[in-house]
């Protein structure tokens, strides 16, 4: 059995679904169910006895400790995190609380549990921490991609909080011997992605006839990783990664944000055309976010060389699957778009649009 935190979020829920589709080992899915944690992501395994869902906070060390003692997992896979850069700019305290203090509490519970295991179980236990390439900062247009040895230089409250959590995980390995593994991934996309992030936001706004907001000039470059490829990488690191090591996970798909939006519009024009015109007509430029990193790129050669993993999807194949999923799952989209999500999008993007208009 494995213990998963944040397993109702975007990447976490995809991991749970992929895990249960490929083997019979049960999972304890521990999630706080904040705005980004959607239990409906897991509807297909709601009655599956291999999926044990528990609502709770990773910062509640007593609850985590009790669950570890009850279920005796062989591994912890830690997805739970606040992850949206814009939200971290508007309200950084939640990011420090969850990503730093929450990870600390989880590590304390894990250390206590692991220390008391029999030697044979202690030897195979793993704590896998899922992190981000944003901890490395930003790259120039011709800079080499991030490696596992790139110096940390986070530029947003979100990335700073994730960097802090990475350092805590590292310290628990070197100080206490806890067998930790850390993965730093590039931008994920795919099914069940919360519609405040670029790709699902563009898809949902396009079909609703709303503006497609582009920060600044839209030339910020990201390395795009299909979520199922990321899940496969995590499974491989959990299976064969060396304790104490870091593995960068990337898709080898560097794309400017504007190019991603153009691609989405073109696929929608093909699969779900408007009555007149193109979805590109809805593109609107808004004020850039403060401190917006210009480029991320992952060098994923270490995980391929040492563990034999590389992505299966190209951006072209993955993005088409993603658009098709959103077109097919409109009930999920409508459910997610209710309540606080709509208020957040209105607050974030209308303020930026007003700022642009004030300058014109």
Topology-level CATH name of the domain at 2-192 and 225-249: Rossmann fold
**Percent range for β-strand residues:** 15-25%
Mean pLDDT metric: 93
Q: Could you name the CATH homologous superfamily of the domain at 2-192 and 225-249? A: NAD(P)-binding Rossmann-like Domain
In CATH, what is the class of the domain at 2-192 and 225-249? Alpha Beta
Reading the helices and strands in chain order gives EHEEHEHHHEHEEHEEHEEHEHHHH
Identify the strand order in the major beta sheet. Answer: 3-2-1-4-5-6-10
**What is the percent of helical residues?**
40-55%
Model regions low in confidence, pLDDT < 50 over at least 5 residues: none
List the helices and strands and how they pair.
Blueprint: E1 2-5, H1 10-22, E2 27-31, E3 51-55, H2 61-71, E4 75-78, H3 85-90, H4 93-115, H5 119-124, E5 126-132, H6 157-176, E6 180-185, E7 187-189, H7 198-207, E8 212-215, E9 221-226, H8 227-240, E10 246-249, E11 254-256, H9 257-271, E12 283-286, H10 301-307, H11 315-328, H12 330-336, H13 340-359
């Amino acid at each position: 059995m494995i213990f998963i935190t944040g397993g109702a979020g975007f990447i976490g829920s995809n991991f749970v679904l992929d895990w249960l589709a490929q083997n019979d080992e049960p999972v304890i899915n521990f999630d706080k169910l904040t705005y980004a944690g959607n239990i409906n992501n897991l509807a297909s395994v709601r009655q599956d006895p291999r999926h044990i869902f528990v609502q709770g906070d990773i910062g509640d060390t007593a609850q985590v400790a009790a669950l570890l003692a009850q279920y005796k997992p062989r591994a912890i896979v830690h997805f739970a995190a606040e992850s949206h850069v814009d939200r971290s700019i508007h309200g950084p305290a939640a990011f420090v609380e969850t990503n730093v203090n929450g990870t600390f509490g989880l590590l304390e519970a894990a250390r206590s549990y692991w220390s008391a295991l029999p030697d044979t179980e202690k030897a195979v236990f793993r704590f896998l921490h899922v992190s981000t390439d944003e901890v490395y900062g930003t790259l120039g247009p011709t800079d080499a991609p991030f490696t596992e040895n790139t110096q940390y230089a986070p530029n947003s409250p979100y990335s700073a909080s994730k960097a802090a959590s990475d350092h805590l995980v590292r310290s628990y390995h070197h100080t206490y011997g806890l067998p930790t593994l850390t993965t730093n991934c590039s931008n994920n996309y795919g099914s069940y992605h919360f519609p405040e992030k670029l790709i699902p936001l563009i898809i949902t706004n396009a079909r609703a006839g709303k503006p497609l907001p582009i920060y600044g000039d839209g030339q910020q470059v990201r390395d795009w990783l299909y979520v199922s490829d990321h899940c496969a990488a995590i499974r491989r690191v959990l299976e064969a990664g060396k304790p104490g090591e870091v593995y960068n996970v990337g898709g080898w798909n560097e794309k400017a944000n504007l190019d991603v939006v153009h691609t989405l519009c073109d696929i929608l024009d093909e699969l779900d055309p408007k009555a007149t015109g193109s979805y590109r007509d809805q593109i609107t430029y808004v004020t850039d976010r403060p401190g917006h990193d210009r480029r991320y790129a992952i060098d994923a050669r270490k995980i391929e060389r040492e563990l034999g993993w590389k992505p299966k999807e190209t951006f072209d194949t993955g993005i088409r699957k993603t658009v098709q999923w959103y077109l097919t799952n409109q009930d999920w989209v409508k459910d997610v778009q209710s309540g606080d999500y709509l208020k957040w999008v209105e607050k974030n993007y209308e303020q930026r649009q007003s700022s642009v208009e004030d300058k014109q």
